[in-house]
Amino acid sequence: MIILPQSIAHVQQLIQPGENYYLVGGAVRDALLNKCNNDLDIICPGGTQKIARRLADQTSGAFYILDKERNTSRVIINESNGDRIVFDFTQLRGGSLEADLRERDFTINAMAVNLTDPVHVIDPLKGGRDLLEKWLRPCSGSSFRDDPLRVIRAIRYSVALDLKMESSTIQELKETVVNLDQISKERKRDEFFKILGRGKTSVSVQLLHSFGILPFLGIENLTNFAKVLQRLRVLDSFMSYLGNDSSLLKRDYFQLASFISGLGKQRKNLSNYLAQPNHSYRTRKDLDHLGAFLWDTSHVDECEVFKKLALSNDESTHLYILLKNRNWLHEFVENGGVLDNRIIFQYFKRLGDAGLDLALLTLADTASVVTAELNHDLWLLELEVCGRLIETWFEHPEVVDPKMLLSGTDLLIEFDLTPGPLIGQLLENLREEQAAGEVLTRQEALDWVEEKKLK
Fold this sequence. Notes:
This protein folds into 4 domains: 1-133, Beta Polymerase, domain 2 (2-Layer Sandwich); 134-215, Hydrophobic Seed Protein (Orthogonal Bundle), CATH 1.10.110; 221-396, no CATH class; 408-454, no CATH class. The chain is 51% helix and 7% strand. It has helices spanning 9-12, 26-32, 49-59, 97-102, 127-133, 143-146, 150-160, 167-176, 185-193, 201-210, 225-242, 254-263, 267-274, 284-293, 305-308, 313-324, 328-334, 341-351, 354-367, 376-395, 397-400, 408-414, 421-436, 442-454; strands at residues 22-24, 39-44, 62-67, 72-78, 84-91, 112-114.
């Protein structure tokens, strides 16, 4: 008997006698693998809006019409435990359940469970056997041509689930790559981000490169591709540790061991930070993997890949900050810089929370060499500097963003000043002095302003 996701009970409660609704696709596949999947695809016998609206009303979820012509609806529920559950309702295609399943991408995703009788898996294409025997097979000979985006999806599934492809499937994939030009930037972006930061990123990227897919994502002219792959491997291992995932921690090498030692105390804080989704539900972890990918990009000011991947303005700005400042920490350490609270304040004033991401990516870049070629002294210094930056952000807000001892009104009253740019300049400079520990009390702040005013 298959064990369905608990959240599917929300839908089962709404089904009327005689109605047949089916859970299909990845949720069934992952249930067979005993994996969690919060994206639930449901086939409806008729219209989708009625049951979707009822589900949204019952669970205080958000209802959307995805495609009015194709009769597809979505409900998003935020569970009390923090999980985000997405229900996609689609109308039965092709006149029968089997015909609908045969139109899907791969056999492992062409399985269904009747929600009123969830005992048996409906599997006309033997996807369960393919899953057990580790095969990725398209549902039909035209699967890739029907939707060229499936060539990227094939890479994702083959790596994530450790599946192999027959030579005929590989040939069909190769022949279809050129048709990715027909796919919107947004769909390609979404599929690409499902690869980034999901583990074994470097393996997936290597396959994207080998099959000539990267140019269709707007990623071209990568210098030192081997370095890119190694940087992604290192970042994957760092992220796995921070996320408490041991799957990528099979080798205990010097860089990772020292990373764990240096940043272990901030593990939970960093993990929570990296898991934060933006308005597009892409996380900092996702964006950092893209940053590691593009780390060596020249002409950052003209970086067209942001547009070709249809990134939001916030995402583009975040990546621009990372790439524009990618050498700052390297150079600071190499030049013998000494980190103090003033420099930490200035660092985060310039970068904001992106300073956390820059510290992690800097470490991943430095560590992306074989241990024998690593400059151990430089690495340990960088680790110390980055560790202190990260610790200060989370543990010492009085340094990163000190609470002001004086306000603009205080300056106007105490020093008989007139409103203008001088007020803002004095306050910002005072803020830095507080962060540096040079001004600790209100009286010291007044004395400091008096001294500066006289100058």
